[in-house]
Design brief:
19% helix, globular, 12 strands
Length: 194
Amino acid sequence: MTMNKRTISAALVVCMVLSATACSTRTKATVIQTMESFSSSQENNFTEGPEATTAECAILETVTLKGSGDDTYAFTFDSEIITYTGQGGNFFLVGSNPTECYLHIMVQSGDSTYEDAFDSASGRIVEEYTLKSGRRAFCYKTSDANTLHVIIEAKDLVTSGNCLIKISIGSADSWYYSQEQIADMVDSGFYLER
């Protein structure tokens, strides 16, 4: 019995040491002042800003995405949650592949307004909400039952005119996060490059 207790104690000590050092070999997260990012913990979905907190073990990366016009946008994301494919606005969930849990993110600038997009999706809207940034967003379905689409009003991303962010969430039922949480992450990761 004493031998079993010692074995169990030793195993617990090893587990504690491994969990305490699991992040030590990874790049530490950058302090983010003005955005939110997914944390690496599923229980704690977001690391809140602008209080200058960091996501433990988060590796934040920035890529440039082209909008539907001539503007380009910097998009910052937690690469421990999603992976950039290197093509346009295509990302996928870490641990899957680009044909499974994917995100396609597109910035649409021009004449289309949030109200126009909302009206055109009428009858297919799943939910409408206000994001943490204060921007309006809604989620709708198409004939592909496992893909959700989110439209975010983002007119303040450009100096003038209308702007929308459209997110397509593939294999939506396989994500750890709700469409609203994904929309918050995407929304908070964008800024206009100048």
